[in-house]
Amino acid sequence: MPQENKNPDLSRRNFLKAMGVLAVGVGVAGILRGVVIDIIPPNQNVESGYPTLQLALPNGNPVHTSDLIVNNPQIVIFNYPLQNEPNFLLRLGDSNNNDVAVQPTEVTIPATGAKFTSPGGAGPYKSVVASSAICQHLGCVPPEIRFHPPNDTSYPGKIHCDCHGSTYDPYQGFSVVTGPTQSPLPNVKLVYDATNDTYSASLMIGPVIYGRTSDLSGGNPISGNSTEVTTIS
Amino acid sequence: MNEEKSLIEKIMNEPQPIPRKVPDYMRKKGGIWYWTGAMIMITFFYEVITGVILLFYYQPSNAYNSTISFLTQPFGTIILTTHLYGAYLMIAFVYIHLLRNLFVGSYKKPRGSQWLTGVLLLILTVAAGYFGYSLTGDVLSADATDVGRGIAAATPFIGSYLEFIFFGAGTSIELFQRLEAWHIIIAGTIFLLFAIHFYMAEYNTIMPDPKEANYKAPLIDKDDKNYKPWYPYNFMYMMQIAFSTLALILIIPSAFALIPNIPPLLSPFPQVSPTSPLASQVPPYPPWFLLFVYKELDFQFASVIGPFWAVAIFTGMPLIYLFLIPLIDRNNDLKPSRRPLIIATGIVGIFYYVALSIWGAFRPGVPVPNSLALIFFVIPLVIMVPLIYYLAGNFEKEKYKNPNAWKIMALVSIAGFFGFLSGMSIYSLISTGSALSLGETVASLVFLALTILAIYAVYGGVKINKNPIRMTGTGYTVFGAVYGLLAVWIFTMISFIPMTSTRDQAMIGIGLGIIFFISAVLTKIYRAYAYGE
Predict the structure, then answer these.
(1) Is the alpha carbon torsion for B280, B286, B287, B288 positive or negative?
(2) Domain for residue A9, yes or no?
(3) A interface mutation test: which of B49, B516, B521 has the most A CBs within 10 A?
């Protein structure tokens, strides 16, 4: 049995204490570093550039032109460029449900006065367009914001957000029709492969997606080289 | 009479000073057995802290991807893998704590209700573990929730309600939202019940060595004026235990993370997604603490009576037995040799648990015929109960002169177990000649040799120096300086490792673990030098 050390050398005792505090201190510092790093939400650019993702049906097959309905009253969306960034996929037509070719146009951003050129329609009839489905006013998402086909009684041929009444024109590069929004919807550039009749999303054009510092941050990248197109009924 | 008062009456009407002074022998050699509860508490707090960080990142709508993405976050690998292994350690400590208290008889008066809350805590801890590993959304979690749904749905009368309550009405988002909610609710309940359990422990006092009271309950520690105060003596000892536990939690999963192709049963990472083509190659294992239930579902009669009744019988019966122990063994004898039934069933219970787990790990999903099941369950009972009664009788008559006789007997039975395993693996090696059998043979022979060595040492073959040479003050100082500088050096090293890859994070985890191990050693050195403990 070790005897009780009645009168240990005080300076040695303090030295041991200092060493103990030092070791525990660096251990706690190491742990705290992790805690602090992980409590701050990650905001790094998870993608170095815009990925090119093929549009695919839930069963994994690529989307062909025949899978898209002209003036579809249901909401068709896909995520791009990140997992939590939904976009409308529209095949635009006139009131007789014939395809309408959408030409690239110059779109003004009322908030800044800046201009950009919309990519225009893709596909055999140049009628397939896509844009962010997050309202640029206060971030409402489908079904609050949705496309009204040209035969609809209210807002025919427009994208209207039921939250505060912002209206966008998909035939004119998703430009602003009425406020309160001060910014058009960011356009998705679609690339059409005529040989295989498939579509790919390759770029975002226009303002930054609502609520983001950049289109490529604030979410997780989509794994694989396709993104799933789903229909909200 | 004092004995007529209920525990609640006593606690409310006769409050006691908390924290109590604790007896000095709790910090001496062998006193570690009084601290098994403290180790559970430390792992629990570690789980709460890492769990809260995971809560910031987990998305029930995106369960698998959000879990996998967290691994690439700085410190993500460390937090996720140690959260899993912290839970493994917590469950292991719960079992150790339970068995220790079973064998020393601390379920007897006045600690009956404390024992009951302990058994409830066991159930809650395993339940939290089940919901926790189901949260990842990987292929094992999909298997686990399928089995869980099946068992819940097969419950008579309320099956569909139970399935909806625990697993939701069918959508994936609702499933993971509910799993997450239950995981956290159960963790909160553990904390509340633990607080009650801990207060009861403080009220009933630590159970002193039964030798001092001639092995008669009730055993209560009488507050001795000579006991050292709680702070700093007990505090420092508790810190030493906390640092050691923390080191274990950090080092084990980080070391496993570095092993390539680690089997799913030991892997600290989530497995592949259930929709991946590789999913079929992952054996549908539960984690180790549920392997025994998993094997029991392979029994022929279990498939006849259905999964609910199989689980109700196989886990319900042992739990009911544990609840009833304070009522079955009511007399005031604390000597193990006067409680042969409890000791024998305890040993047989350990055998069932370990053997079923190993069986389930190596032969998953292989059906077991009724005849084999009968042999498996009856033979250990028929052998152990009379054997323990016979040995207990001999102990009562003081036939064994060696004071370590019971330790030798325990080790002989463990040696027998490894001998059996060696025999099986040698047979398998000769008949198949596979590398796996060779590994199994070598491992079981090594364990057999180690156990025989331990028997030899306990029997008195190895003399341990009874008067260890006490280090001088200079010695302590030198060791203290070396360890302190080592900790700072490791900290500097791990601070410069980039935190991008899983491998780098595992190295940081090991480094942090070693720092906490050094902290434990320094605490021990300080206690030895300053307090002479």
Answers:
(1) negative
(2) no
(3) B516
